Amino acid sequence: GLHGASGAGDAAGALRAYQRTLELQRAALKLVPAHPRALRGYVILQMKAGNLRAETEPYAARRVYEEALRAWDRMPQAARDSIGARRIRGLISVRLGRLLPEIGAASDALPFLDQARAIFGSLIPLDPNDARLRYDLATADFYRAEALRSLGRKVDARDSYLAVAKALDALLAQVPDNAVWLSHRSQSLLDAGRLAAELGERARGEDLIRRGLEGVLQVAGNAAASPNDLYRAATGLLVTGGDAARALEFAQAAVNKTNAGNALYVFTLARAQQRAGQWEAARQSARQALALLPAPEAGDPAPPLRRSLENLLQQLP
Predict the structure, then answer these.
(1) Residue 14: its pLDDT value, please?
(2) Helix 179-198 and helix 131-150, axial crossing angle in degrees, nearest 10
(3) Cα–Cα distance for residue pair 223/312, rounded to 1 Å
(4) Per the count of CB atoms within 10 A, which of 60, 144, 175, 310 is most buried?
(5) What's the CA gap between 283 and 86, in Å, rounded?
(6) For residue 241, how many other CB atoms are within 10 A of its CB?
(7) Does pLDDT of 59 surpass 50?
(8) CA distance 173 to 93
């Protein structure tokens, strides 16, 4: 039921389910504090709860991820040494590395991402045929590029995005119809192209942006496209000044697939409506997205998504 609630757009319901399960895990750990399976389950649940809160409650999500890492450290050494446990550690580090630049802590993100890259790099030789591990490494590299861009290191970030695209090309050579890999590879090209243009490499930037957009639009045009695929297509068109009508179409589809329950997708719809000149619709969507955001925990600043929504409302005529 956890994945079902989240997939249906009920992130709050999914989080409540995770929290109930976490309480059961905590009760088990009170009885046997170092029980390997209970600790492993607790770590995974904390990570998933953090994933659900990352967009709307990033400061709280940071604390959840950090608690997951502390719990991982409490696992017995033999349990920590398993490939699965090490991969989980790497995935949590990637999530932290993804989150921190969004709350102004990009420099703090790099150590986590470098740790994740080291973990995945050490696991790949143990199971060279496991494509998940190579995709995990590419994902860590992608968010490292994001952190570098946040730090103003545009050349390093551009080169990192291109390296990610190359790594994903190698995976796609084996499984050409993997939509997740194609979408991520296309996003990497798009981001590299935008940076190349900012660095004065106009022709190169235009070529990379064109190739990246082609990829994200190809994936989003599939009937089985995920909400995230549709979101990437809408955002790609919006940030590159592309077809406003298509951006609106993809943004609306992402909202529909999540039953208007994802604040980020509803915000993207508001942006697309703003671009299309649909002022009142954009205003309604922005307010709807704000209503989906939980109140920040005591002492936490307003999350970037809330500030972006408030700025959009101020911009509307």
Answers:
(1) 74
(2) 20
(3) 31
(4) 144
(5) 45
(6) 9
(7) yes
(8) 28
For residue 241, give both structure tokens: 């000044």
Q: How far is CA 132 from CA 57, 121, 180, 234, 264, in A?
A: 28, 12, 11, 27, 27
> For the chain, percent helix, then strand, then coil, each to nearest 5?
80, 0, 20
Per-residue pLDDT at 4 exceeds 70: no
Alpha helix (H) ranges present in 54-201?
58-74, 77-80, 83-99, 106-123, 131-150, 154-174, 179-198
Q: For 66-106, write each residue's pLDDT tens digit.
A: 999 999 999 999 999 999 999 999 999 999 999 999 999 99
Closest CA to 71 of 98, 43, 50: 43
Instruction: Tell me which residue of 294, 293, 285 sits closest to 254, measured CA to CA.
Output: 285
Report the 10 Å Cβ neighbour count for 149: 21
C-alpha 96/C-alpha 107 separation (Å) is 12
What Å distances lie between residue 239 and 100, 121, 196, CA to CA? 22, 33, 15
Q: Which two tokens stand for residue 168?
A: 């994903």
CB of 62 within 8 A of CB of 96? Answer: yes
Closest CA relative to residue 260, chosen from 55, 56, 11: 11
DSSP state of 225: -
Give the distance, in angstroms, between the CA of residue 36 and the centroid of all CA atoms in the same chain. Answer: 29
Q: Which two tokens stand for residue 280?
A: 């009142």
Closest CA to 42 of 71, 62, 78, 2: 71
Tokens of 100: 């921190």
Task: Give burial (CB, 10 Å; 0-12/13-18/19+) of 163.
Answer: middle
Q: How many CB atoms lie within 10 A of CB 246?
A: 16
Q: What is the pTM of this model?
A: 0.91
Q: Which amino acid is at 94?
A: V
Contact by Cβ (8 Å): 233, 250: yes
| Angle formed at CA 109 by CA 165 and CA 58, multiple of 5 degrees | 100
Q: Reduced to 3 states, what is the DSSP secondary structure of residue 167?
A: helix
